[in-house]
Amino acid sequence: MQRLITYRTMVDLRDPDAFQMYTFNDHAGYGAVEVAQNMLLDFQEASGNWKEQWAICEGLALLRGANSLDPMIGIDDGELFRETSIMLELMLLTALAELEKQGQLGANSDVRNLGMVMGLFAKEAQALRSDGYIDDEPSTTNKTYSGEHFVPYLLAYANKHNIPIHGPSEIDEIIAEAEEEAEEADVQLPTAKDPWKWATAFKAYERKNKGSTTRSGKAVIGGDSLDITTFSSAERKANSFDGKDPLSAKEIKSIKDGMCLCLG
User: Fold this and answer.
1) Which domain of life is it from (predicted)?
2) Buried/exposed 138-173: b ≥16 CB within 10 Å, e otherwise
3) In this predicted structure, what is the pLDDT of residue 2?
4) SS3 letters across 107-156
5) Could you give the CA distance from residue 119 to residue 139 in angstroms, rounded to a whole number?
6) CA separation for the pair 226, 13 (Å, rounded)
7) pLDDT at position 189
8) Distances from the Cα of 100 to the Cαs of 93, 108, 193, 253, in angstroms?
9) Which end of the chain is less enclosed by CB atoms within 10 A, N or C?
């Protein structure tokens, strides 16, 4: 739950409307991408720590369940949105493979919300495909996961370890479609030692998308460039509707003292 609170706060702080400001049309959308990229970075940094990696996936599932990342859909770089969405899916597949390796899938798992998190991811994946943002056809050039058969893969893990996928009201229909797709395409879980090649895919994504959301021009993904509390007071005044800094002197001091602003 702490991850959800953290990520939701990060999204809010990148929304100019919440501060009565206007910066540029897609600020909130690219801000959501920046938060998503921070999740990818967190997941990468948590390599070898399955509990922390699962907490990140859990936070993402709940964040998506609340539609908090929806502003990403409207950005003017559709390819960045698609690739980021695919990486978020790959994050869950990688986490499931690690949980399986650690004996943490199934009835005796220490993780008690496997089915719910998988259900929330499945709902988002189905929506992305029905709306045409992700193509389920395997890539002929990409050697890592490229968006193909995501829900059937989830279903394969669920069936293998007797995990009931649940949560969204339409989950039965989503599962039925996935079962049909799995049968038609003969979808099988990869059996390699590194089944999802997370590190390879992450490096490729990072290399291609460095600087995709930053205002500073730094060649990085994620960060806090679009967090409005990191703007100077002069920048906030210049972009506010009334010409005043939306942050009070007390709030500015708290931020300088290392506190995080939470919007009500």
Assistant:
1) Eukaryota
2) eeeeeebbbbbbbbbbbbbbbeebebebbbbeebee
3) 86
4) CCCCCCCHHHHHHHHHHHHHHHHHCCCCCCCCCCCCCCCCCCCHHHHHHH
5) 25
6) 8
7) 97
8) 11, 12, 12, 46
9) C
81: left (phi over 0), alpha (psi -120 to 50) or beta: alpha
What's the rounded Cα separation, in Å, for the pair 79 and 77? 5
CA distance 208 to 212: 9
Q: Are 34 and 223 in contact (CB under 8 A)?
A: yes
Q: What sections of 131-232 are H helices per DSSP?
A: 150-161, 171-185, 198-209
Closest CA to 59 of 77, 46, 48: 46
- In the predicted model, what is the mean pLDDT of the chain? 93
CA–CA dist 38, 209 (Å, integer): 13
* 46, two tokens: 């948590």
Q: pTM higher than 0.90 for the full model? A: yes
Interval 40-67: pLDDT, tens: 999 999 999 999 999 999 999 999 999 9
Residue 224 CA: distances (Å) to CA of 108, 131, 215: 39, 30, 9
Tokens matching residue 150: 């995501």
Three-class HEC string of 62-84: HHHHCCCCHHHHHCCCHHHHHHH
Contact 86, 147 (CB under 8 A): yes
pLDDT value of residue 223? 93
Nearest to 154 by CA among 111, 198, 120: 120
